[in-house]
Amino acid sequence: MRLLLLQARDADDPMRENEIAAFARVIGCPVDGISVLDVLTEEITAARLAETDVVLIGGSGHYSACGGEPWLARTLDGLRLIHQRHQPMFASCWGFQALARALGGQVRNDRRRAEVGTHPLQLTDAGRADPLFGRLPDPFIAQMGHEDHVITLPPDAVHLAASENVPHQAYTFADRPIYATQFHAELSADDLRKRIRSYPEYLKLLTGLTFEEFCEQTQETPECAQLVPRFLSLLETGALPG
Question: 33, 112, 118, 159: least buried by Cβ within 10 Å?
């Protein structure tokens, strides 16, 4: 498959390459098997999407989906285009928030509901019946790192999962091969530790933990790591709506 990763990260962000490597690892493809589009400087065009089978989105470093920057407005237009085209997409964290905002949902910054580390989530009834999420244990654990959260889902979204602190953790669409997760299905425990080491102020501000304490609490999430490759497998077999 021709994979395109949308990134909203500064050129000197050390997690740019880590993010590509994380997606490549869970998918089981070489790093150079994933093309990258930098949404800070590039536009999501129909021509680029026509050359793409599956769109991926991860986190965003220091950027919020709540902002009003010109690049973000342009990117939200691109996400609406992906939705209109029924383009297969798996979006996590910032991608989850940006897509929700693009399609009429609401995103808010609320540090009281910030989640950093490995957290438990529960499936909704729709999640238990979903071809992708229905194979997860209930509850399941996932890697988190956010202070923005979606307070209202897009009108046509199907709610799949929740955590104790943040009710909207995953959604899909009944007629489109698009999934979005607040959590990071692509990250291992080691990946998350690398993220936190790169953004130390984030850990202190949101958790009050030392890095060593954070590392002790972080767990592996092998069931969650199957979501992206299972998504691609379901696409290949035609098991998802088109």
Answer: 112
3-state secondary structure of 62: coil
Distances (CA, A) of 156 to 105, 152, 179, 219: 10, 11, 13, 33
Predicted pLDDT at 62: 84
Please report the pLDDT score of residue 61 as a whole number. Answer: 80
- What is the structure's pLDDT at 4? 98
Tell me the C-alpha distance between 17 and 121, whole Å: 28
CATH number at residue 43: 3.40.50.880
| Segments of the chain with pLDDT less than 50 | none
Half-sphere CA count of 223, side-chain side, radius 13 A: 14
241 belongs to a structural domain: no
* Nearest-angstrom CA–CA distance, 191 and 196: 9
Whether 130 maps to a domain, the answer reads: yes
Nearest to 144 by CA among 168, 115, 164, 186: 115
Q: How far apart are CA 30 and CA 18, in angstroms?
A: 13
Q: What is the pLDDT of residue 208?
A: 81
